[in-house]
Amino acid sequence: MKKMIVVGSGILGASAAYHLSRSAADVHVTLIDAKHPGRATDAAAGIICPWLSQRRNQAWYRLAKRGARYYAQLTEELHRLGEHDTGYARVGALSLHTDPAKIEQMRKRAEQRREDAPEIGEIEVLDNARVRELFPLLGEGYHAVRVSGAARVDGRALRDALISAARRNGAEVVEGAAVLEVERAERGEHAQLDKQERGGEFAATDAGGRVTGVIVDGRRLPADEVIVCAGAWAGELLRPLGVHFRVTYQKGQILHMQMPNERSSGRWPVVIPPTDQYLLSFEDGKMVVGATHENGVELSDTRVTAGGVHEVLSKGLALAPGLADGEPGEVRVGFRPFTPGFLPVIGRVPGWAGLITANGLGASGLTMGPFLGRQLAKLALGLEPDLPLDDYAVEKALGEG
């Protein structure tokens, strides 16, 4: 039996563990959960609608498109396994603008992209009256392109469903911070890379060997493959190997609200305004308004700040004045991880056998994460990925440091 360890239990790691546990191969899966405050998945309520994006990076779009398409298959599988609360609902999306010319550009973009992404569904242009009929809290003056195939997803609910299904299939979940254990190529010796050795003996020029498992609170867990899905914390985890993994992060504060007397809100579409904000509605009047985009902060700074709440709420009210009657509730904080070029990376870590990673999903984590988790499982099992991964090579996130 092969032993597989996944480090990091956000949406990416949970998906990798789930897909490994569903494999026909004889494998034992262990998912390591450090429960870092500020995990991106804990804070995320995501919009699954990549087709209207204006990003010109085609490699990013290919990945996002495949990620969005994969949701139908994945959620159907989870439902068959008894996981009915996936947090996913295909409610459509309204992409807003006040400029009719911009609306027409969005419509043309959606029509072009539907040629190879039929899951976009119906595309229609709506006037302000129809927009406010579909999402009554919105202000005057907005027109929209509506795409019926868009969806919303609660990151916590989907992650929990994936982990629950993996456990049903025999996966083990271990709580604690993992430290990589390696066998160095030079001497063939086992070594636990603890904090005292970082930046010392295992310098970048000496890196190389095999990752043989992890240590969690003194417990040694051997593995044939270790998959690192540690998000913003991946650089710290890989540094003792002499690997300078260039992952940065951005703090986001996201406001949850409760709207009285809006019991039908679970059927409302997600709202994509012309700014970097968003608005999602869930059942029984629950609203999610986001988000800040804060750079240059420390990973320890998980504070909810007055400035952050003010930014989110003021922009939210400008977009949807109807929110004024709502009751502010929890503010969630998460760190979105980015790799160079704002393009995710996935694959084996050069110089280290038995070590696979993926990272840099940024604000598209919930769109891409389940699909990329499936690709991680395929790589660990020696199977062919569902799309070529050359554009997302891990080498692109490595550098001197």
Automatic annotation (TrEMBL):
Cofactor(s) of this protein: FAD
Entries under SUPFAM superfamilies matching the protein: FAD-linked reductases, C-terminal domain, FAD/NAD(P)-binding domain
One example GO MF annotation: oxidoreductase activity
Stretches assigned to the FAD dependent oxidoreductase domain: 4-379
Transmembrane segments: none
Gene3D superfamilies: D-Amino Acid Oxidase, subunit A, domain 2, FAD/NAD(P)-binding domain
Keywords: Flavoprotein, Oxidoreductase
GO CC annotation terms, alphabetical: cytoplasm
Keyword Flavoprotein tagged: yes
Pfam families, sorted: DAO
Family as reported in the entry's similarity comment: Belongs to the DadA oxidoreductase family.
Record protein name field: FAD-binding oxidoreductase
Organism of this sequence: Saccharibacillus brassicae
